[in-house]
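Z., the sequence and structure:
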Amino acid sequence: MPTTSFDYKARDASGKVVKGHFDASDMKVVSASLRDKGLVPISIVPTSKLGGDLHIPGLTDRINIKAVSVMSRQFATMVDSGLTIVRAIGVLAEQTEDKALAVVLTAVRQDVEQGTALSAALAKHPKAFSALYVAMVRAGEIGGNLDGVLLKLSTTLEKQVELRRTIKSAMSYPIVVFGVVMLIFFGMMLFIVPIFKKLFLQIKAPLPAPTLFLVAISNALLSIWAVVIFVCIVGGIVAFVKWSHTESGKTTVDKVKLRMPVFGKLVHKSALARFTSTLSSLVTSGVPLVEALDIVADTAGNKIVEKALRECREGIRNGKPLAATLAQHSVMPSMVTHMIDTGEQTGALDALLEKVAEFYESEVAAMVDSLTSILEPLMIVFIGGMVGFIVISLYMPMFSFIKDMNNQAGGT
């Protein structure tokens, strides 16, 4: 069988890039031979075609996490099939439907082809690849299990997408309904009530208390003071949004979120699900616990949980068990600390963390279903009650006027 001369770049167990020359029938044979020697192939090209690609700048906008998840699963399949990292990234860059991700992958491919570690190349694009992603890939490179780590990453990202979708669906429904209610209310106050007010003046009917209340609100909204109040409200909202993006603002807002009735439990459980799932993925991939906690703290999604995790990281550095440090924080339920304690004692921390994550993910899904089933009829009753109150209040003077007219006609 004819052979072809190939030049290759690969990475050994210590992370060092090695280059060499290999004669084989095709690139798959070269890749298999390198793996047998404990090397991770970076690039394999025919000797006459060795060269670099044109550098393409990175990206400024954050990439859709779902696109990264799909790419990771495809990447794992290609690496497992024997494709080199460079070739696999090149194929992914051509195949992905996300143009922004294609730009990043092309830049990553160039860096890797020039000898940069895959994790280091990914780290140059934090808007596409989070610290979690980079750390797990780095662990996969060191452990020689890159395809397995990529599959784990894909699953982790898919869970994050699903968790976010679940939380958004729970939060968005009451917000949308409340917005519709406000539009109906202000529409009736600004356009419908003034028409009835003119009619009331014409018939000179006595106005009952509910009608007087609606007319007073309508008059207030149509006055100059309504504009002043509106400007103040908008200014207050803008100031609040700016403040909520400060460190103290984020901490206060997140603390309030956790204390909210009903929704506070949802926020808390979703944060715990995210924390345990992410930590499980990192520990499974071989990331050191101190570094893993640092990454998990950044992705916690809640400042109170983040603070607890950072303090736990310092405790672990001082030689304390993870469960013992977590138990010192009220934001961590006893079930979480007991499961982690069991995991530390049995050496199955990653598996038990995954069990905890699955428990809280199912709890979040159940809470969302329960909230939706409760909120839907409540919102319908609320909207119906508000519209009914306004309509009855507007027609009460008409009924009174008609009754008086009938009494006068009967008296004559």
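The chain has three domains: 4-49, 65-129, 156-412. The first strand starts at residue 4 and ends at 11.

Let me know what you think.
H.
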